[in-house]
Amino acid sequence: MDSILLIIIAATAIISFFALNNQNIFNKYKFNVGAILNNKEYIRILSAGFLHADFTHLLFNMMTLYFFGPIVIQAFGEMGFLVVYFGSIILGNLFSLYLYKNQLWYSAIGASGGVSGILFASIAMIPDLGIYFFFIPIPIPGYIFGLLYFGYSVYSMLNPRESDNIGHAAHLGGAFFGLVYAVAFQPDRALSNAPFLGIMALPLLYMAYQVFVKKRIG
């Protein structure tokens, strides 16, 4: 396991733990539309990626990063991994900022944008990677895992709850960044896996239709 991946997982887990036990830190660094637009607290766009709603949220994101991170590192190197991860967090939260600009109460936390970028970039490289999920004895193909992951995210984003706090909208921006990076730097390999990426992207296409065509959120 690459050290840079372990450092990010450890740092995220430690910061998330302290924030969950210190409401002041949690509130100061979570993604909040009102604080960013009105108070110019732009650090929240990045810092929210190190906070999580609870340990289940943290575990799910870090497990996904643990499984798929090494593929991105192998394909694009450590620097490429960092660019995809943090670029996806930032772009994902910028998309959330655009999406919820009229809802100043909207808050979110989590590494979901970065994890989505890593997930999409890695499955662009190895779409049929077998993933053992919790106690299921049969490996789930990576692109099916991605389909379920994004399906849940899209549903939660289109049906927001003020108490949720999870940045579901950031998944789309992060996934977009990861895919664009993979296609830009490994075009032949990524495009050869286009059918698998298309299956995984179905919830994202539905989300784009709801947001940009039907104007369901905004």
**Strands, count:** 4
CATH superfamily: Rhomboid-like
CATH topology, which one? Rhomboid-like fold
What is the CATH domain class? Mainly Alpha
Distance between the termini: 41 Å
**Beta-strand percentage range:** under 5%
Major sheet size, sense and barrel closure: 2 strands, antiparallel
Structural class: mainly alpha
Strand order in the largest sheet: 1-2
Number of discrete domains: 1
Gyration radius (Cα, Å) is 16 Å
How many individual helices?
A: 11
Q: What would you say the CATH architecture is?
A: Up-down Bundle
Order of helices and strands: HHEHHHEHEEHHHHH
User: Percentage of helical residues?
Assistant: over 70%
Care to describe what's here?
By secondary structure, the protein is mainly α. The protein has one domain (3-213): Rhomboid-like (Rhomboid-like fold, Up-down Bundle). 70% of the residues lie in helices and 4% in strands. The chain has 11 helices and 4 strands; from the N terminus they run ααβαααβαββααααα. The strands form 2 sheets. It has a two-stranded antiparallel ribbon with strand order 1-2. Strands 3-4 form a two-stranded antiparallel ribbon. Strand 3 (130-131) and strand 4 (140-141) form a beta hairpin. The chain is globular, with a radius of gyration of 16 Å.
SSE layout and pairings?
Layout: H1 3-20, H2 23-29, E1 31-32, H3 33-39, H4 44-47, H5 55-99, E2 107-108, H6 112-125, E3 130-131, E4 140-141, H7 142-158, H8 170-185, H9 187-192, H10 194-200, H11 202-213
Antiparallel strand pairs: 1-2, 3-4
Helix pairs in contact: 1-5, 5-6, 5-8, 6-7, 6-8, 7-10, 7-11
